Every structure is written in structure tokens, then in C-alpha cells.
Amino acid sequence: MTGRSPGEQVTIADVARHAGVAASTVSYVLSGKRTISATTRGRVLASVRALGYHPHAGARALASRKANVIALVLPLRTGMQVPVVMRFATAVVTTARRHDHDVLLVTADEGPAGLHRIAGSALVDGVLLMDVELEDSRVPLLRELALPGVLIGHPADSTGLACVDLDFRRAGELCVEHLAAAGHRRIALLGAPAAVYDRGTGFAHRTRAGVRAAAERLGVDAVTRPCEEGPAAVRRDLEALLADHPDVTGLVVQNESAVGPVLATLPLLGRRVPGDTSVVAICPDELAEQSGLTCVPVPAEEVGRQAVALLMRRLSGEPVPEVTLLEPHLTVRDTSR
Amino acid sequence: MTGRSPGEQVTIADVARHAGVAASTVSYVLSGKRTISATTRGRVLASVRALGYHPHAGARALASRKANVIALVLPLRTGMQVPVVMRFATAVVTTARRHDHDVLLVTADEGPAGLHRIAGSALVDGVLLMDVELEDSRVPLLRELALPGVLIGHPADSTGLACVDLDFRRAGELCVEHLAAAGHRRIALLGAPAAVYDRGTGFAHRTRAGVRAAAERLGVDAVTRPCEEGPAAVRRDLEALLADHPDVTGLVVQNESAVGPVLATLPLLGRRVPGDTSVVAICPDELAEQSGLTCVPVPAEEVGRQAVALLMRRLSGEPVPEVTLLEPHLTVRDTSR
DNA sequence: CTCGATCGTCGAAGCGCTTCGACGGTCGAG
DNA sequence: CTCGACCGTCGAAGCGCTTCGACGATCGAG
């Protein structure tokens, strides 16, 4: 029984009165910023529980100049790998909570103005930027606002920033190395939608670069081609690719929505997998697992966790590395040989 | 040039000084809660722009007892229709911003404790609850905390609540009516994963009920069966279904991940679509459009908009209807006859 | 012309919290 | 023993904003 109607804010003064101490003492117990005797601490904590006290977020933000909230700026537009984004978001929220922070969801459509608003109103202490382009307009703004930020993906110039990403270049190389080792001499990358390349999205460009570099190094042929979304489009793009390059026997797919249709279409084109054609994907692991697909998993959770951890370190003033690249790994399943 | 280092908070006092008025006057200009002469207002607004002033969210929340933030409580667990959730989230953020509110992302894993925390700390003014189950533990809590909330989906007992949802019962009926009108006498519902039914998730149960009711009313046979995710699982469940009920000629699919595989599998079973078997889905429209699928679209955006609008009305003390059901519509494409 | 309304503005009082400086009380070193 | 250092606690001052009451000025009605 709290003796208060629900919805009424329990204040630190209530707790102090209940425990017979000063409000500041309660604050120090909760923050641990000054030593408090075990007895007093025990009494205070008991009162906190008894009253169901939660500090008023606004008041705390005002006094301490920290909101304990971070912003997650999501793309939410076409061409995005939706499930990846989702799993990533989950990891971010969970990790942030573990660091006693909440997550504000901001859509990229709000653009730079959104960042201005958020920074100016002290709504958040820092931002996580997803879907970063090679030349991203938000990046200079971040520098200018002196708003602590961590980027998912990395822009061309990462000076003074903190970026986390799967090493997509290496992932591309890995796929080609795997196929080349299995004896494939002609390899094709069926990539993201053209719009994604046009936007200059890092992961697409870097993967392509990795594929090309590895192919050159290993002396195999590699062609690359964007691929639109939707079963019909995938099928069309795949057929066109194989019509132009009929001698391709190794396929690297980096497009979530293409995985299913590619696997369904190849047999119809008279190509058995992996007998005639090997398929390797860069995609979430569950998706690949469902189809027994050889893949380089995109570790969305791990990226999310790392990103939050980096941001937390920045918020506490620690220096952090500019670029954190996660090492990709290839999981061999049934679609490659 | 603001004359302040970036990251320094511009306060209302700065604006007041710059405009030569009192701080309270600035506040009234911005809130419109008292009449201010056009000249003064103009001067103040100019200063606001010149200094790039954004009110400090915490201070504002403290003084006004409104955070101008709503919480979006997302499931983020298996069996969810991920793209739907995503589009929904986008609509929520966009609509909320239009009402001058931000959105805090909360995962359902935090459970009731999360709601307590959020309510107690005045972090948010209200909550949007997704993925509501028929008997949802968060619902009584919402009542108890007197926390304004809007549910997406609706629980068995919606007294005193506000719920928004597509009328899934009607959607189920619509599909059956369409198939029956085309002459199909034996119809099957290939539904959500079994876990979704077991959780008592409203949309799955209501759709099934609608299918059964319409079938009975129209005198056609209807069988229903859950369907797991992933191409292989879908194929297996579909084959089992058709083995048990070979005379089924009309298929209702309510499972995003099943749409593609179902369409791919039917021809392999010697069933041409729509010649031998008609397929109708309840799924996002883009997904259906890609495959030329007859469907009842799930209007994620519309639900998101409505939900936010309802919450805003609740926050301003207006009474709102307990249940808002969106009328489903069937779009005929190439997979049904 | 005077008086009450009305309008536009101001000053001050908090909102609930953190944090700084201060102050008694202990305790160990000299 | 005495004195300084330290420990545990308190009171007060603000953080930036909203909002209430007050107050001069303006204006129309009597």
C-alpha cells in the first residue's frame, strides 16, 4: 500500500521522509557517488522498494545534464534488409537497457533537422546512425553538433567518428575464396537493388569490391549485378545474369529477398544446386539455415551490442576506435561445392 | 553565428534576452497559451530561429508534467510478421512526430516491469502496445497504473481500453466468401505458426474464427492448420495439408513467410494456380503484389496512424471508442478464380 | 471623464532531481 | 590527550521550463 493514487509521482522527498533521511542522501544511495553507511543504505533501499520509487526522468535529465536515452536513427525505407534491421534494433534496445539507457526511435526521413532537434532539446545523450552512406550528410552534422554518435556501416571519411560494421569487403572475399577453392572459375555476385548502390551504401559497395579483389587475386572471373526485390524481379534478374554469362557456376547472393527465389529458380533453369551451380549468400543466418544455404551470416545482434557499447564508452568520455570491423565467417551448408 | 560553442544548450532566457522580453513571454509565444501581440511574437520567433533554440525536453517535462514522448512496446520475438511490424513502426513514428511527440522503443521482453519503470519515471505520457494476446498480462497493469494506452490487436476483455486492429474475423470471412463465390466447396486455412495460436494472439484466432463462420454460413467445408516458418517447413505443412485433404481447391494463407513457398510448391504438387487451386492471402500488399496474389492487405500504416491518433486523443482527455476495427478489403489478382 | 474589462507582459514560484559545500562525529597518528 | 583527516549526512542552490497572479496600459461604456 503506497498511500498514493496510481499515476501520482512518488518523489525522492517521499522516499527520504519514509526512510528518515535527507533527499540528497537518497540520491547518493541511488547513484553511489558518495559513500553511505550500510545501515542507511539498507533503510533507503527498503523505502525505495516499499514506495515503488522511480526517479522522474525529466528532473533527472535537467539536474544531471544526462537524459539516459540514446537515439536510434533507422532508415525504414525501401531496399532495406528488414529482418536485419529488426534484429539489430532488438539488440540495441536490450543492450542499452543493460546500460540503464532507453532508446528513442527516430526515422531517417526527419533527416538532419531531426538530429538538430534531438541534440538541441537534450532529449538524448547520443545517437546510433544506421544505413550510413559513403557520403552521408548527417556525418558532418554530427561533428558540428558535437553530438556523440556511433555509425552502423561506415562512411568514406570516418575521421573522428566511431563506426561498427561487418567487414563486408572481407565477407565478399570469403565467398569468392570458398567458391574458387571448390574449383569454380566463373563467379557472379547477385547484389542489392540498384538504388542501394546508387545511394552509395557502404555494405553493398564494399562487398562488391571484396568480390572483385578476391577474384582478381585468385585469377577467377567475377561479374556483379544488382538485383531488385520481389520473386518475379529476382527471377528476371537472375535469368538475365545467367543468359549473359552462361558459364557462371558460382553465385554469391547479397539480397535477403532474393535468397528464396534464387534457390527456387535455378532448378527451373536446368541447374541443380550444388551439382551444377553453387550458391553462397551474405544474409542473416536463420534465413540461410531454413534453406540449408552456405552463407556468411550478418551478425546483426553483435553489431547492435558493439554499437551500444561503443556509444556508452563515448558518453563516459573514453576514447574509442574509429572503425570496428567484425570478422566475417563462412558457414558451409548444402548449396555449395 | 550563435556565439555559443556547439553542444551548449540555448535556453529560454537566452531567447528572452535576445528578443528583449521576459522568459515567460517566450514560453507563451511558443505554447500559444496566452495571447501575445503580433509584434512581440514576431520578434520572439525571430530570436528563436536566430539562436536555434530548442526547449530542453527534461525541463519541459518537469514543469509541464508531460514528456511529449510515447512508448512503442514491440514484440520482437519469433513468429512475428517482421515487415508488418516495421511498416507499422514507421507509421507510428511519423504520425507521432506530426503530433509533436517522440517515440521510445521498448521491447516486450522487459515485460510488466518495463511498464512500471516507464510509468513511474514519467518518461512517457502513454503507450502503444503491439502484439496483444487474448489474455494479456500487461492489460490489467495498464489499468492499474492508469497509464494511457492504446492496444494494437485486442484482448478478450477490452473494457476501459482503446484497441485498434484490422477486423481479422471479417478478413477471414472475406477470403472464404470470395472463394465460395468462385465455386470452391472445400477450403483450407494455412495459418500462423502453432506458437502464435498457443500464445492466444488475437489476429490468428479471429481469422480462424471468421473462416470457420463464413464456411458454415455458406455451406462449404473448411479445414484450418498452423504453418511453421521457412521454405522447407512451409512445404512440409502444405503437403501434409493437401495429403490429408486432397479435395481442397481453395487456400487461404495467413503467414508472410509462407506466401512465396506456397506459390512455388503448388505447381510441384501438380496443382496449377489458379487453374486447379486458388490462393488468397492475408498479408502486406506489397508482398502480394510482387507475386500477383489475391489478398486482403494488412494496412499496417493505417493501423499505426489510427493508434497514434487515438492515443493523442486519450492524452488530451477526450473519450475514445474501446474498439476501432478497420474494414478489410479484398484485392483480386491472378491467383484466385 | 471615470471606472471596470480586457489585453499584453512580467516576475516569481515551483516541478523533482543532482551536486556542492558544510558540519558534526570518529578515529588514528603524534 | 589533541589535532587533523576522513566519513556520513544534511541543507541549499540551481538545472530550464511552465504557469499563476499581478500590474500597467488601452479601450469602450456609462
Using brief descriptors, characterize the structure shown.
homodimer; 337 residues; alpha/beta; six-stranded parallel sheet; five-stranded parallel sheet; DNA-binding
3D structure, described in words:
The structure is a homodimer of 337-residue chains. Chain A has 337 residues and is α/β, with parallel strands linked by helices. Chain A has 14 helices and eleven strands. The interface between A and B is large, with 61 and 61 residues. Strand 2 of chain A pairs antiparallel with strand 2 of chain B. The first copy, chain A, binds a DNA duplex (30 and 30 nucleotides) through helix 2 and helix 4.
Write the layout of secondary structure elements.
The structure is a homodimer of 337-residue chains.
Chain A: H1 12-19, H2 23-31, H3 38-51, H4 57-64, E1 69-74, H5 82-98, E2 102-107, H6 111-120, E3 126-129, H7 138-145, E4 149-152, E5 163-166, H8 168-181, E6 186-190, H9 194-198, H10 202-218, E7 221-225, H11 231-244, E8 250-253, H12 256-268, E9 278-283, H13 285-291, E10 294-297, H14 300-315, E11 323-326
Helix pairs in contact in A: 1-2, 1-3, 2-3, 5-14, 6-7, 8-10, 11-12
Chain A binds a DNA duplex (30 and 30 nucleotides) through residues 9, 11-13, 21-25, 27-28, 31, 33-37, 40, 55-56, 58-65, 122.
